[in-house]
Write a structure and sequence with these properties.
The chain is mainly α. The protein is elongated and about 90 Å long. The chain starts with a helix and ends with a helix. The chain has 26 helices and no strands.
Amino acid sequence: MRVPRFMTLSSNSSISDFDLPDRDNSEIKYDWQEVIEHAQFQSAASIPVCAASASELENRVETEYDPKLAIAYNGCAQIGYYFNDYPAALVSINFAIEYDPERIDLYYQRALIAKALNDYPQVLADCTEILTRAPHHQAARGLNAIALVRTQDYKAALANFDRHIKLYPKDPHGYCYRGICYEQLKEHPRALADFNKALELNPGEPVFHHARGCTYHQLGNFSAALADYNLTIQALPLLAKVYDDRAEIYRLQGNYSDAITDCTQSILLNPDRIDAYFRRGIIHAELGDLDLALADYDRIILILPGRGYANDPYHARTYIQRSWIYFRQGKYSQATQDCESIMSIDRFCFWANYLLGVINIRTGLRHRAIANFTRAIEISPHYVSARYHRGVAYYELDNITEAMTDFTEAISIQNRSLEKLIDRDETGFYAEGLALYYTGQIESAITTLKLALLVARRFSNYSFQEQILQLLRHFSNQ
């Protein structure tokens, strides 16, 4: 008969059940939730619980309390936990604590149930109760550290892991989890040192390879990251997250075929994996496969409501990506609707204001476009494309003074190398080409519009291609 997990964890616990929530991939943060869970019962070093023995507890309970109610509810809680019925387990353990509030292990069991329910404030409250009474209760300290990380208090978690490593210097998991904290605090060299130490103590642990791979990724060492991800996948072929991470390496290396394959595998293993849909959508868009990209973004928007989408970092980002797809397909009303959805979440979103401006200027609503570009410039003053666009709108409204001011400032930003070339797209090159033409630099305008044409072709922006071609023919005939 399988031993209930409650009894195992409450008497011989490890902090190897460390996990973290999904993070914004734009910052390349590590999703630990799936990866670390598998090591929950594989810790090389157990952390002793400095509490009374079972017999001592039983004797104390028998003499000071009515043991029947507390023990019965505790048993019900263990059964509920064993069968993953965490709400029922929580009700039972609450009754057990009510009838026997002095019993420390009941608070630890409730903390474990709260962790299973992702109620980390309750985990912190129960661990605080335990540590107040028994400061050397290392299992509670480890669980407390988990809750601190999940609530993003990484510095406090570090103190817990520092203490654990001092007490158990041969436990590789302690170094791994401290490395996680360092990684979240963007202290990547320290994180790498801890992951290396963890692998020195336990070279075959795939979790440590995955952790180190993510740190190599952030440090820009893609070949080392890829090697660690490959080792992790060999050991854990059903782990969706690692395929997703490896896909990003392939994408950054320009290996789009393998990147799409890994994203698809990640989705097959976890059909609700938003990261993989988002990354695959980006790859499809970069390849000009707009319909495939749109399908991935549509899928994310269907999934998000079940994820508490109002606070999900992918909410606005997905609408941004989809609005660009609609724009490039010439579906301006849908693109406008998505931009308005973004601004209902974050009215200071640069891209929503910028794209609305581009749409408005293309549909002849220049005054609206100027308002959009003005907000975009206030949000991101060094993004030259917004200034070029606003200058073009001013010029076409015969406000030459304002137009030349914008053109001059855009050129100044470029000369000071303050713009991000990676952010340039066909709309930006198009606006710059018009600005160059309006200032009498016809040859430079033609060169820049050719760049706009190349990018428009890459992203299958056919309506924009046609307009650029018309301008190029017109300019070339002058």
